Amino acid sequence: MKKLVLALAVILIAGLSSASANDPVYVNKRVSAAFQSDFTHAKNVSWVESPKYVMAQFSMNNKIMFAYYNHDGSFIGVIHNILTTDLPDNLRHTIKKGYGSYWVSELFRMDTDLESSYYIRLENGTESIVLSSDGAEGWKIFSVTNSSGKESASL
Q1: Separation of alpha carbons 149 and 155, rounded Å
Q2: Are strands 151-154 and 116-123 parallel, antiparallel or unpaired?
């Protein structure tokens, strides 16, 4: 399960999960009903379907969110972008202290039924680092890519 959630995070980070407005996706009733039950106040819902999951992109409480479901309608997780000020203090301080020469290009929180995780992409012009954290034990390197696009480290 954790590998699937991490894979979804990578997909979001890579920007592959954006829906095409020209190609509407019709999801099965189980997924649609589960989504409507979980996110009753969702607006502007669009769907992306893959062989492994179904993703709903929507807005709620002035936030763009991404909810992931299995094809049987079971909830996988929800992802939404956050600000660095929304990070737990220990994670925010580690970024300031250890990555002061980098800028944050992407930051999001992922919530599943079991846990919440954070993912951050940091860049400095020569490399891009993606870190992950469950919030309690600090950051772990998820991947490092140099400016030529070559991945030099990953989990």
Answers
A1: 17
A2: unpaired
Quote the tokens at residue 87.
């990070």
Distance (Å) of CA 114 to CA 2, 50, 77, 93, 134: 10, 23, 9, 25, 11
The stretches in the chain having pLDDT less than 70 are 1-25, 149-155
pLDDT value of position 19: 41
Tell me, yes or no, whether 54 and 104 share the same domain: no
Q: Are residues 62 and 120 in the same domain?
A: no
Same domain flag for 31 and 52:
yes
Distance (Å, whole) CA 18 – CA 12: 8
State the average pLDDT for the chain: 85
Provide the whole-model pTM: 0.77
**Do residues 129 and 136 make contact, with C-beta atoms less than 8 angstroms apart?**
no
Q: Smallest Cα–Cα separation from 119: which of 41, 6, 30?
A: 6
